[in-house]
Every structure is written in C-alpha cells, then in structure tokens.
Amino acid sequence: MNALSSGGCELTAALRFVFGRNILRVEPMDDFSQLMPLQLLAVHARITDELRSRGITRSVNNPTGDLAEYLFCKAFGWKQAENSNSNVDAIGLDQLRYQIKGRRMTRHNNSRQLSALRDLRDARFDFLAGVLFAEDYSVNACRDHPLCRCA
Predict the structure, then answer these.
(1) What pLDDT does residue 8 have?
(2) Who's near 67: CB < 8 A, 6+ residues apart?
(3) HEC secondary structure over 21-40
C-alpha cells in the first residue's frame, strides 16, 4: 500500500494548514473588473512575491508545481530537494526520491494530464507523486506510483 492510498486527506490537511481552516469559503478581496491590465499584473506580481516570501513557492513561475511540492513535503514530512536537482523534487524520511507533479483544472481547461516526465530512461527518482487541484487550489485527487524501469 502506498503513502497516498487514503486519497487526498493528508494533502487536504496540509492545504488547510497553509491556507487556514475555511479554504473553501474564500471571499473576493476586491472587484478586479475595474482595474486596468497593468494594475492586474501588478497585483499578480505582489501575490507571487508574497507566496514566495512565505516559502510556499520557490520561483516566480506558475505556483501549481511549487505548491504541489510544498504540500506533499508538509503532508508527509519529506524534504524538498534543491532546485538544481534533476527530476527529484523531494526526499522521503526513508530516503526514497520523489518527482512531484501538479495540475490545476479550471473551467477553461479540465485536462488531468500532468506535465512531461523528462529523461525518464535516466530517471533518478523512485516514486512519482501527483496532485490534481480544483480551480480554487483545493485538492481533487492525489496519488503516488513507483517508477517502473522498463527495458
């Protein structure tokens, strides 16, 4: 039985820890419809910086992948690998290596396909861990799977 056999319970608990208890009742902070595009981008930049300063994200890119890594590590006590570590995102307490993928499904794109696994033939990870987020970043599903080394 794998670490995620109970579904998204641990990740949901980690998500509540990060975002607070009422993660499903997020009220809009402002009416953004009156802002100009440059103002919207400035708000986005400030939010990105704040997530990074809190240690939730590690880059200024789309937060989905960084959030997935952060939540798996918080939920299971894994240690995040250095950013330069090729295709290993975390190390488990048992020293198993994990590649972590996240996907945010939206009303505009509900694909469940995770991003590519690069250099799979030379993979340095033992397990692939994946999480599917809903549009509001709540956890829809998560799984881990051992790497199958096929000839």
Answers:
(1) 55
(2) 56, 57, 102, 133, 137
(3) CCCCCCCCCCCHHHCCHHHH
Three-class SS state of 140: strand
What type of residue is 35? L
Q: Where are the alpha helices (DSSP H) in the chain?
A: 9-19, 37-53, 63-76
- DSSP for residue 117: -
Would you state the pLDDT for residue 5? 42
Report the 10 Å Cβ neighbour count for 93.
9
CB 68 within 8 A of CB 131: yes
Q: Which of 57, 67, 75 is nearest to 102 (CA)?
A: 67
CB atoms within 10 A of CB 23: 16
CA distance 95 to 88: 12
- C-alpha dihedral sign at 135, 137, 138, 143: positive
> 141 and 114 in contact (C-beta within 8 Å)?
no
Mark the ranges of the chain whose per-residue pLDDT is less than 50: 1-7, 150-151
